[in-house]
Amino acid sequence: MADLYLKALESERKRLWATCRLKGLAKGTPERVRIGELDGLIAEHKGKSK
């Protein structure tokens, strides 16, 4: 069964990361902060499913 929540988190992270790379955004910008939050949510979710 596909884990849609995890896929949505990873998709948002990839989209934000691509945006940051294209625009050359520095650390501390809202997009980079959200990437950090998503990393934590992804890790937490993967920990629950094991």
Which structural class should the secondary elements be placed in? mainly alpha
Distance between the termini: 15 Å
Main pleated-sheet profile: none
Q: Spell out the helices and strands N to C.
A: HH
State the total count of DSSP E strands. 0
Number of helices: 2
Which of globular, elongated, flat, extended, rod-shaped describes the shape? Answer: elongated
What fraction of the residues are assigned to beta strands by DSSP?
A: under 5%
Show unreliable segments: none
Overall mean pLDDT score? 91
Helix content: over 70%
Can you characterise this structure?
Helix 1 runs antiparallel to helix 2. The protein is built from two helices and no strands. 80% of the residues lie in helices and 0% in strands. The protein has 50 residues and is an all-alpha fold.
Describe this structure in a few short sentences:
The protein has 50 residues and is an all-alpha fold. The protein has helices spanning 4-23, 30-49. It contains two helices and no strands.
Descriptive labels:
single chain, mainly alpha, 2 helices, 0% strand, elongated
In terms of topology, how is this protein built?
Elements: H1 4-23, H2 30-49
